[in-house]
């Protein structure tokens, strides 16, 4: 009996799982050719008429399990939040030593900018998981489910706006050194 009372007093358990993958597109540049132009031509990342050299796509998925009381009241017992992310970057081939050095410096700054996007996804996943675990008991499981999903989606929207602001503030990485001047 004491063990079951202790179990009822425990907060909801959480498990945030993260999966980050890098993928590449190939880029060939001839000696003396503009590195920026070669990346523009090779990049498969095109949105709203713009060409981007790198891109981070992240997705947060959440699940929760609840306990229903005899009177219908409902509370979350367990959450599982997953972050899946893919960073797409260029991979250089066929270059001279100077181009390779410039590319490696550029790639480091580009990767750091994209990791900033990933960190926003991490923050979203952590915040969603915490919000689900902190949800109060609701009069019904249907209301609990509605409130939980509504809160999680609102958090996603806030972090999507954070990403847009991050790109505006950094000039899509330009202020972080992810810029080629040629």
Automatic annotation (TrEMBL):
<feature type="region of interest" description="Disordered">
    <location>
        <begin position="160"/>
        <end position="182"/>
    </location>
</feature>
<dbReference type="InterPro" id="IPR010321">
    <property type="entry name" value="DUF922"/>
</dbReference>
<dbReference type="GO" id="GO:0006508">
    <property type="term" value="P:proteolysis"/>
</dbReference>
<dbReference type="Pfam" id="PF06037">
    <property type="entry name" value="DUF922"/>
</dbReference>
<dbReference type="GO" id="GO:0008233">
    <property type="term" value="F:peptidase activity"/>
</dbReference>
<keyword id="KW-0645">Protease</keyword>
<keyword id="KW-0378">Hydrolase</keyword>
<protein>
    <submittedName>
        <fullName>Predicted secreted Zn-dependent protease</fullName>
    </submittedName>
</protein>
<feature type="compositionally biased region" description="Basic and acidic residues">
    <location>
        <begin position="160"/>
        <end position="172"/>
    </location>
</feature>
């Amino acid at each position: 009996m004491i063990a079951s009372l202790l179990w009822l007093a425990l907060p909801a358990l959480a498990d945030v799982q993260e999966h980050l993958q890098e993928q590449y597109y190939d880029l060939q540049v001839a000696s003396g050719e503009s590195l920026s132009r070669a990346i523009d031509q090779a990049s498969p990342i095109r949105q709203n008429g713009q060409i981007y050299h790198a891109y981070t796509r992240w997705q947060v998925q959440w699940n929760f399990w609840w306990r229903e009381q005899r009177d219908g009241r409902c509370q979350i017992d367990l959450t599982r939040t997953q972050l899946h992310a893919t960073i797409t970057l260029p991979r250089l081939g066929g270059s001279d030593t100077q181009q390779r050095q410039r590319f490696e410096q550029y790639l480091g700054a580009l990767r750091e900018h994209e990791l900033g996007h990933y960190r926003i996804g991490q923050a979203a996943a952590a915040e969603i998981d915490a919000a689900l675990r902190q949800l109060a008991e609701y009069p019904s499981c249907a209301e609990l489910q509605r409130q939980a999903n509504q809160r999680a989606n609102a958090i996603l929207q806030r972090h999507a706006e954070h990403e847009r602001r991050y790109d505006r503030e950094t000039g899509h990485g330009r202020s972080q050194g992810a810029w080629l001047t040629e």
